[in-house]
Amino acid sequence: MAPSFRALATLGLAKQSATSARLASSAYSTAMRTNAFSPAARPTVSMKLALSRISPFRRTYADAVSKVKPGKLRRTLRWAWRLTYLSTAGVVGYTCYIVYQDRHPEPQFAPDPSKKTLVILGTGWGSVALLKKLDTENYNVVVVSPRNYFLFTPLLPSCTTGTIEHRSIMEPVRAILRHKKAAVKFYEAEASSIDPDRKIIKVVDSSEIKGATSETEIPYDMLVIGVGAENATFGIPGVREHSCFLKEIGDAQQIRKKIMDCVETAAFKGQSPQEVDRLMHMVVVGGGPTGVEFAGELQDFFEEDIKKLVPEISDRFKVTLIEALPNVLPSFSKQLIDYTENTLREEKIDIKTKTMVKKVTDVSVEAEISRPDGSKERVTIPYGLLVWATGNAVRPIVKDLMSKIPAQKDSRRGLAVNEYLVVQGTRDIWAIGDCAVAGYAPTAQVASQEGNFLGRLFNNMAKTENHETRIQELSSRMNIQAGDSAEAAHEIESLERQLRRIKDIKPFRYSHQGSLAYIGSEKAVADVSWWNGNFATGGSMTYLFWRSAYLSMCFSTRNRVLVILDWLKSKVFGRDVSRE
């Protein structure tokens, strides 16, 4: 019974406390309403006592309410934001570190006169890939090229319209060589002839400013020829005199000037409609990736920039793409070829396939079109700008060397090489890139892989020579000092195992990684090798892949940053339409 009475008493006290709290709260509220407008109103002692009774109750009630946790979406967004700024900070930090390393290279070793002299001709894709892979401390390396930079040619069409500035895709050769372990000599000159019997190269200073000595000879023990190819005109009259090529940075600058020349001349007062149509007609010969990308860039330039600034001639602009084969982009899959041609036609680019150029004048192109019924039609196409983006021809120095090697007498497209890229008929001359005939298409991808292969080959050759010299030394020591024979024999055995691995060099095999091409209107096509087949795609998402792929292929961090800034600049402010 006692516990029951105590429980009832406790319950009664609780009810009394609650009633007192309600009464006190009511009294306080009434007092506040009564004295709300009285400036001299102050809380009385009874009010303070009532508030002191209410406060524990309010705190207890507030503590009893649980905090609401943020939702899953909010937590996900919070972590995504944290990951974003942490990743950004990491990328910026890594970029700063790479830039610092580029700006502060380590000291280099001086060349060793006792080692072999390796001469590399050219600074294109193959030669630069070789230099990146080569351990220069194993040789005395000499580089000879008429240009002192490496050019990222896949983005060259973008330079013609100002989407990318030309210096953004150029990397100084001396900056590349400065980061090698051993010093490399570089001569900005053009090789005029090669004597394979005397192992001597004649070089000529081809710059505008010449010193007292502008011609000299360079001896070599090993020679790599990576001079590329020049533009082929196929003997068509007027091509070299009236066309613009698209192979070097000077070609892109010339095209850019001529585009604006055509625009400004067409806008000149009193120009006849026929002349305006001719000046605003841009003709591109060559339906490969270079020609297609240039046509797409040119159409974008006029649609996004020229039409806004020169509206009076905007409806006269026209681009024509001429290809001798039945379709453009012949190295791509049929699906992508159809997609590309449909996209170009949607962009109002006139495609003329099965069309052979026969003659070029300063104002027109004479071509022969093959009709489906087998008949041929001769047409005259007036133009303001003609860009020749097809064909490779052998350079004079390669022709001269081929004439001196009997084994090269049947070769027509370049230096015939074996599976190790050695020039046939020689022992110490290698050829890579467009000047070599190895059974593969003359592309930057092939040249780059050939350069990497030669770099590994030369590194292994140097290791082989060092190991063989060391084995001879150990063998001689064993004959003189019998006490160290066990240790020397063990080292010889180890070196011989390494030699077997080093000498087991597989021949060069090209691995096709895929093909990319920009087709205008922020669309691209990609034919990428995937497992045992190909993955073909096209569209706007492929355009982002095209940009990211080319960005990753740029030679240095400096090039990547400059290209990104150029893309942003042209997107925000538009392309520069100034003539120079």
Automatic annotation (TrEMBL):
Domain External alternative NADH-ubiquinone oxidoreductase-like C-terminal: 512-576
Pfam family, one: NDH2_C
Domain FAD/NAD(P)-binding: 117-451
Enzyme Commission identifier(s): 1.6.5.9
GO annotation, cellular component aspect: mitochondrion
Any one Gene Ontology molecular-function term assigned to this protein's record: NADH dehydrogenase (quinone) (non-electrogenic) activity
Enzyme class: oxidoreductase
Reactions catalysed according to its record: a quinone + NADH + H(+) = a quinol + NAD(+); a ubiquinone + NADH + H(+) = a ubiquinol + NAD(+)
Alphabetized UniProt keyword annotations: FAD, Flavoprotein, NAD, Oxidoreductase, Transit peptide
Top-level taxon in the UniProt lineage: Eukaryota
Family label: Belongs to the NADH dehydrogenase family.
Identification of the protein by name: NADH:ubiquinone reductase (non-electrogenic)
The organism's taxonomic lineage, starting at the top: Eukaryota, Fungi, Dikarya, Ascomycota, Pezizomycotina
